[in-house]
Amino acid sequence: MLGKGPGMDATGKLSILADAAKYDASCSSSGSARDNTPGGLGNGAVGGICHSWAADGRCVSLLKVLLSNACVYDCAYCVNRRSNDVPRAGFEPEELVRLVIDFYKRNYIEGVFLSSGVLGCPDHTMERMIRVAKTLRVRERWNGYLHLKAIPGSSAELVEEAARWADRVSVNVELPSQASLARVAPDKTPAAIFGVMRALARASGFEPRKVLPAAGTPGRLALPAPTESAAEPAPIYAARLEPPVGRSVMAARKGRPREPGSAILPAGQTTQLVVGASPESDATILTLAENLYLAYDVRRVYYSAFVPAGLDPRVPALPGPPLLREHRLYQADWLFRFYGFRADEILGPDRPNLDADLDPKCAWALRHLDRFPIDVNHADYLELLRVPGIGPRSASRIVKARAGARLMPESLKALGVVMKRAAFFITCSGAVPSLPGSSRRPVPDASYARAALTDGARRALAPLQMEFDWGEP
Amino acid sequence: MDYRAEPATLAHDGSWPGFLCACAEALNASEPVPRVVDADAPVGLFESRIAVARDDGRAAALWDRLTIKAGAPAMRIVLEAFLSERPDARADTASVLRRLRREGAAALRDLADPIVLSVDKAATRARREAERTTGIARFSELADGSWYAPLEPGCDVLPLVADHFAARFRPMRFALHDLRRGRAVLHEPGRPWLLTDGFSLKRVEPDEDAGPGAIDSAMLASDELRIRDLWRRYFAATAIEGRLNPGLQAAHIPKKYWKLLTEMRRG
Predict the structure, then answer these.
(1) Three-state secondary-structure class, residue B255
(2) Over the stretch A20-43, which tens digit does the pLDDT of each residue have?
(3) Which residue among A40, A54, A305 sits closest to B238, beta carbon to beta carbon?
(4) What does the alpha-carbon distance between residue B121 and residue B84 come to, in Å, rounded to a whole number?
(5) Are B135 and A51 within 8 A, CB to CB?
(6) Side-chain half-sphere of A286: how many Cα atoms within 13 Å?
(7) Chain A: residue whose CA lies nearest to B229
(8) H or E segment at A403?
(9) What pLDDT is recorded for position A443?
(10) Interface probe with B: pick from A27, A29, A53, most Cβ of B within 10 Å
(11) What domains, with CATH codes, occur in chain A?
(12) ipTM for the complex?
């Protein structure tokens, strides 16, 4: 049943294996400054390069394919699960290597994102992917961006070897709780997933931090031991980190400079969570994501709106992918990494889900009006970052510009500040900015403020997302 | 020279060295400083325009002097602003050089000064266009084993992207062709790249109907069309049907760029 040999040509395989790989959200090609080798082809671009944009608006940077979409696992959210009736195909390693070089020389792609269905056992599958990686790097002397997907449960040795050839290796957490993982992806265990994450953290020189059971939750469950990582305790999802806690992801990263020139895993590891295939709240998802950033030095957590792929009773029959929810989660994730927010500042037990109408920073600011307005001529960089309408770029421009002259409200727009939002939260040495296109004074607790701060995300994304009743938790 | 009598302007020939020579002249002038203009710009009624001759040695000397004073990153911004081809960017860049000479790189941080801000914005524009170009240039393999990529960038980005492509495609013999400006970066393995004016791809038989950058199929390597087709297949397969969003796609890659993108056209 595998489309190999004379039955299927490269064109047919490419269509099937690209189609099967597209639900992985990661397409980033950043973080690596791999040099071209003498006589070799290609290099890394630290900032990453987008080469095109697909009809769904997502950037196309990497050739994202599976080595094979035949899979012995049966994960309910996944189009390639063994119980799903789809055509199956697999690349011969040589075919794939040829394709990568042909595309790369035409500047179609920045590199490859190679994943695979599980063939036989995890280690066997990893070995096949590593063979392709090694051929590209050694025989073809190719130095483009290589992202390998690790299979949960692979041995630490193979994970380390993958890390030697790749710029980035990732393993997907997929479901935000142990119970959901057991129900939706019965062949994967937390220990198998987090074991790989630990090996990846170590490969890039980061000693993973110990994850303790969250206070007030039942302890860890007995889990079947995965290969090689049996000696380590299996972490559980609802977890808290060993002290010191209370540091934001941004603060924790300050002491860990990135090394894009590193030979091993210059772009680190990432992971992905499927959103909407299970009943966890945004607070659960964001707390888990923050722990992954802090415990394993994950570079990015991707949130992938669950796209119903055929009928499977273990996952909800959503009318469409929950794109608005995914969008708000990404906004919150940005607040971790670039704005110095902690997960418990964004959401908590009393507020389990993100606001549909406001971006998470606006929502936070409206809950903390006692901290505003702030004076842009005196506030430090971190305080500026907390202002809706001011981002890292405009905040650093403000700090630069005010060294020369005192800033007045009129000069802020040119520095990139979105005055429509910022006007509610700032002064310029006492001068209150006016609201663009309005004669009203910007008063953040006025009745019209919330409407003025509402962004267009719900209008753009919500028609595609309907509420699903999960019943009683 | 004494420019004080009337509002004088200094005209350059549009080239980068020519522009720097006009800037050098302006830096030598006393207040009020004459504006630096493109020789193509219409002459104002009361304008007294002085053409400054291009002198590559003089241009290089000014460049070196300013680089010592302000540092290479600041001078990169100056070059980017010049290449942006924004209406006032060159005149503004010329007057910013005066501050650069006096204050060094710090001058470029004073974004409260509208001239500095204008230069910063122009430079950002050219830098973004160059970044975009590194992604959307599409090479075709020709029958002789060389590679050809036609471009129509909004800014004059060739000098900004040549290093990138030369490093990445070191073993390849290639031409990056700016169709709009008729210039090309030519790269031979083992040699530094070269910028050539008045470049055109030789055509086997001129085809009036072919779009810009089109190549006669007789000139293409035998596998070229098959690989283009594979890429189109991949591009179509990688979009998620449940999330189609043509508006977002067009926001990222405006349609004016589509005609040179393999995945957006036939053939």
Answers:
(1) helix
(2) 888 887 788 998 999 988 889 999
(3) A54
(4) 9
(5) yes
(6) 32
(7) A11
(8) helix A392-404
(9) 86
(10) A53
(11) 5-316 (3.20.20), 360-454 (no CATH)
(12) 0.91
